[in-house]
Amino acid sequence: MNTQVNKQVVETFSERQTEEFAADLARQLQPGSVVALHGDLGAGKTVFSRGFARGLGITEPISSPTYTIIQEYKLPDERWFFHLDLYRIDNYIAALAFGVEEYLDNPDAFVVLEWPLRIKELLPPHTIHIQIEHIAEESRRITIR
Ligand SMILES: Nc1ncnc2c1ncn2[C@@H]1O[C@H](COP(=O)(O)OP(=O)(O)O)[C@@H](O)[C@H]1O
Ligand SMILES: [Mg+2]
């Protein structure tokens, strides 16, 4: 269900480049993929998520669901893009209370998680982990591991 994604490190020099990198990744993945975005506040997780959504063909505005936790986007052919921002979730028990596994286990959905370590106990083994680091004002190092 999950295409193998090679380990790689890239540096981007603009928000736009990060979006394009994420869009390319999205186009390589299959539904059922779970992408965990690690990085500090302002690293570029939401920018990455927006690019990923664009790669799936979503044109509507993408902002971080910090208060709503989950934003669902319907794709053609009964597929979904789920964007989760777990910043306000204390731990995996709180996440289970809103049914987070239903999102993580959906074979028809692409899932991108901000603050994934809030639910590290629940992340599936096939999760693709991506680290985004702030290097300079406009540059970020993106590592797929
Ligand atoms: N190369 C880059 N990649 C991604 N974002 C960048 C880059 N350079 C500058 N930025 C800026 O960094 C900020 C990242 O914000 P955001 O994606 O909301 O972070 P996070 O979701 O990780 O808290 C945005 O204001 C964006 O314009
Ligand atoms: Mg964010």
Account of the protein in words:
The protein has a single domain (12-140), classed as Rossmann fold, CATH 3.40.50.300. The protein is built from four helices and seven strands, in the order βαβαββααβββ. The mean pLDDT is 95. With 145 residues, it is an alpha/beta fold. It has a seven-stranded mixed sheet, covered by helices on one side. The structure holds adenosine-5'-diphosphate and magnesium ion.
Low-confidence stretches: none
CATH topology annotation: Rossmann fold
* Rg from Cα: 14 Å
Bound molecules: adenosine-5'-diphosphate, magnesium ion
Provide key terms for this protein:
single chain; 145 residues; 7 strands; 30% strand; Rossmann fold; globular; 4 helices; alpha/beta; 7-stranded mixed β-sheet; binds magnesium ion; binds adenosine-5'-diphosphate
Summary?
By secondary structure, this protein is an alpha/beta fold.
Summarize the helices and strands and which ones pair or pack:
Blueprint: E1 8-12, H1 15-28, E2 34-38, H2 45-55, E3 70-75, E4 79-85, H3 92-97, H4 100-104, E5 109-114, E6 128-136, E7 139-144
Parallel strand pairs: 2-5, 2-6, 4-5
Antiparallel strand pairs: 1-7, 3-4, 6-7
Helix pairs in contact: 1-2
Bound molecules: adenosine-5'-diphosphate (ADP) and magnesium ion.
